[in-house]
Amino acid sequence: xxxxxxxMAHGSGGKLTQELIKEHFWPRFTNPALDSxxxxxxxxxxxxxxxxxxxxxxxxxxxxxxxxxxxxxCGTINDLASVGAQPVYLSASFILExxxxxxxxxAVLDSxxxxxxxxxxxxxxxxxxxxxxxxxxxxxxxxxxxxxxxxDPVPQPRRMKNxxxxxxxxxxxxxxxxxxxxxxxxxxKLPVESDxxxxxxxxxxxxxxxxxxxxxxxxxxxxxxxxASELAQASRLAVTLQxxxxxIDVPVQAACDMLGLDPLTLANEGKLVxxxxxxxxxxxxxxxxxxxYGRRAERIGDVQCQPEGLALLRSRIGGTRILxxxxxxxxxRIC
Length: 335
What we know:
single chain, CATH 3.30.1330.10, Phosphoribosyl-aminoimidazole Synthetase, Chain A, domain 2, 13 strands
């Protein structure tokens, strides 16, 4: 009788491993590079590329708005997009825990395939390993990505200038709250979903509109506050955000107020912080608002010369506080 869950034998490298690959992975990700079944895929690359790698251990593996599979694809795509690179190839390694059901595995793989197809990215290399029951947490995924650079010079903090505008592509904190909601039944009625999304299309639209992008970051772990602090330190300029201009969904703000969390430090998996010249800010927002993942984009602050290396938040009541990189982890394993 065929097993309904992953067993240690599926990690043996033998017949059951081949069944695992051919029945669950290959039908979803088939492409010429992967179909060769070689130990390495043969890729033709004749352009300047960006390369990134990441690992995903989110708990639970299913949460409102996403899965660990969708998250793995989006996370890697967005790291490439944030340097102006068009994602083209992915690799993925899967650590499966004995007892993971085929239904769970297939749901994760379906979400990966759907997201990769949306982003027009090919999975060209993969590997699976199985660990004993209790030695993992259902499934961990490690991904790497290659993208073609589409902008020169590459967006980076040292290109930021005094007077630049700071944009965010939508409301913040949703992913962190969605994962918290999935862990705790007390919050199951919160109308909050993860913002997990592949963002190359947003960047491509900005480049097509000839928007000069000085810097970009995706505010994942540590959230907007951490990205603001890191940009200030790396540019040796001041990053000043206006609290009343930062888009935060009402349920997210309400939950944060109740739990004592700061939405500016919560993780996001479908947002970009974009630094552009002030004169280009309105046009950049117009372009972003036309894209499904940028409809709530806002200008949230400006770059200034002083105080050097600090990120500041101007509060609604006129006060100012320093934004620092997140210390510790109030919500562990959110990606």
